[in-house]
Q: What sequence folds into this?
């Protein structure tokens, strides 16, 4: 993410580079205009100082340098500056940009100490070159004070920008959470609307058809077409039962403060018990899961038990929600949902082939597999004709957050 105050920081660094280059050019020009015995040494030292500075400036364009390299660079600049200061008093001007380097690279304690030391060195060097003067003392001291104040302001700007960046990231995350919550609420509201529409239209229509056929059957119990009427009534009754089951699945019990475990227990005590299957629920309490994941797991359990009711001819079933140690060796926590029954069982391979052929009797298992894949988990179906069925869903809890959006789209 781009720093909010990047243009300001770039402008300050560019200004520092220009000031340094201009001051070096001033030292060289002074040595050339007023030649002396050390003119050649001053020019060579100035070029070397500028070259070392340019190398360090280019090296830091991609980010802050490693501390050992930064300290070596700063030490080399300081040594070259001391050499120039010994040759010409004009080199004292170069201490001003060096102040900012000391403050930036040596930290909150070392930076001001280094600034104080080189300020004293500059004052003494000016005195040795031209004697003591007010300008020779006040100039470096004022420059050091200005540099320290600017350095403090720079640090304050950096902290403010970092804090602002953190707040912006939190706001974006909060916006995404709110949007996700709204999408989830919209999906649940749409499912509730579909359930109401199906109840008010298809279910009511099938109920009316069933009543009319029953009345026709009683009106002429010995008529020639009574067997067809009875078959139609039974078909309507079966379809009405399926429709009511669809309505129940579209409107799952609320995931309130008891969470997924409480919802599973309520289903076992009400809906599943009414369907004629005794379901034992064993669920771990206090699992912190995103609401879309809880909803998806609830629908997986509902779909599995619905298949048991419709196809397995089972008398007992079990739903277990627990932490698994399967991924402990890799440091992962695994959540396992297991649904078992004592029914007639089936051949999973044959069901898979039927699904590839377009048959609808494998839709429930296929939908469960797709939902598990959207959560980033794995699905195991262990069954055989006459041997009951065991369905196992495993999710890596550390990967649940990244799969939340996929689970939400499948809810």
A:
């Amino acid at each position: 993410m781009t720093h909010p105050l990047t243009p300001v920081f770039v402008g300050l660094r560019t200004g520092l580079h220009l000031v340094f280059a201009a001051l070096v050019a001033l030292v060289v020009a002074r040595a050339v205009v007023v030649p002396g015995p050390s003119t050649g040494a001053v020019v060579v030292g100035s070029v070397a100082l500028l070259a070392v500075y340019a190398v360090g400036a280019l090296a830091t364009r991609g980010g802050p340098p490693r501390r050992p390299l930064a300290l070596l660079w700063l030490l080399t600049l300081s040594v070259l500056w001391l050499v120039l200061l010994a040759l010409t008093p004009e080199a004292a001007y170069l201490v001003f940009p060096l102040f900012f380097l000391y403050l930036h690279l040596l930290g909150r304690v070392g930076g001001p100490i280094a600034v104080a030391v080189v300020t004293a060195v500059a004052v003494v060097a000016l005195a040795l070159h031209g004697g003591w003067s007010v300008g020779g003392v006040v100039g470096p001291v004022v420059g050091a004070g200005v540099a320290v104040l600017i350095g403090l302001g720079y640090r304050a700007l950096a902290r403010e920008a970092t804090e602002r960046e953190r707040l912006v990231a939190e706001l974006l995350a909060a916006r995404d959470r709110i949007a996700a919550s709204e999408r989830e609420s919209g999906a649940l509201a749409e499912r509730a609307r579909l359930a109401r529409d199906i109840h008010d239209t298809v279910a009511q229509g099938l109920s009316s058809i069933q009543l009319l056929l029953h009345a026709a059957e009683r009106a002429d119990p010995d008529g020639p077409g009574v067997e067809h009427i009875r078959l139609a009534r039974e078909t309507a009754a079966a379809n009405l039962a399926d429709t009511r089951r669809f309505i129940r699945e579209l409107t799952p019990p609320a995931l309130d403060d008891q969470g997924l475990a409480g919802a599973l227990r309520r289903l076992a005590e009400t809906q599943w018990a009414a369907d004629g299957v005794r379901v034992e629920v064993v669920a771990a309490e206090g699992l912190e899961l995103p609401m879309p994941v809880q909803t998806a797991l609830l629908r997986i359990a509902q779909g599995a038990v619905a298949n048991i009711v419709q196809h397995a001819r089972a008398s007992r079933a079990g739903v277990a929600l627990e932490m698994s140690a399967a991924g402990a060796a890799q440091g992962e926590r695994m959540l396992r949902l297991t649904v078992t029954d004592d029914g007639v069982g089936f051949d999973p391979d044959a069901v898979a082939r039927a699904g590839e052929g377009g048959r609808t009797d494998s839709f429930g298992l296929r939908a469960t597999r797709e939902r598990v894949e959207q959560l980033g988990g794995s699905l195991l179906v262990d069954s055989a004709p006459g041997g009951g069925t065991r369905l196992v869903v495993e999710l890596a809890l550390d990967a649940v957050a990244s799969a939340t959006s996929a689970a939400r789209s499948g809810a």
